[in-house]
Description:
The chain is of the alpha/beta class and 254 residues long.
Amino acid sequence: xxxxxxxxxxxxxxxxxxxxxxxxxxxxxxxxxxxxxxxxxxxxxxxxxxxxxxxxxxxxxxxxxxxxxxxxxxxxxxxxxxxxxxxxxxxxxxxxxxxxxxxxxxxxxxxxxxxxxxxxxxxxxxxxxxxxxxxxxxxxxxxxxxxxxxxxxxxxxxxxxxxxxxxxxxxxxxxxxxxxxxxxxxxxxxxxxxxxxxxxxxxxxxxxxxxxxxxxxxxxxxxxxxxxxxxxxxxxxxxxxxxxxxxxxxxxxx
Length: 254
């Protein structure tokens, strides 16, 4: 599934972005005493989108975050597509935030390793990870966990992961490697082979969140499944953090 095809998104994407819009002001208030704080967006997109039904221009995650640019020490955006990355740089210019924001073009699994090395491990850092498919590698999440990060992750369980796990049990070439990269383990395959389709979703979701806890994220919140305008199940949003204040805020947002 291509996210934002023709730069258009549906209502389910706006509902997801509403979580970010509500959370960031509270996050900044909670971290106001910190000397430095950072925002990282691993799958940033062009910054703004067009609503599929209304045709109206709507803010993507970068446009939402840039509203608070002066309250962050720095904002880092990663976008794979060069054309979208250029649109994002233009958006940053329109906010007058060139001194506050940097765009990296390419694979977030490469760039995020570089970005966090620029940040003090104890500086509060909010990371928004919104892949359109199985692009987010576990090694990247593992790297982020070594810093004082809160992660808000789109977990593409229905729209991507289940499609890689056919009901007939015959994995296509490359699927095993892709899923190993997402989960950071091959334990998903045992679940796939042993559990009925009825329990597969919950078991895979539990596997992923359990491994997040093992990385040191004591607080985990999972959304209900997000659905398309036609009712098709797509993905879950997962928030993880190490401080109870963050959990309290996200509990309220959810």
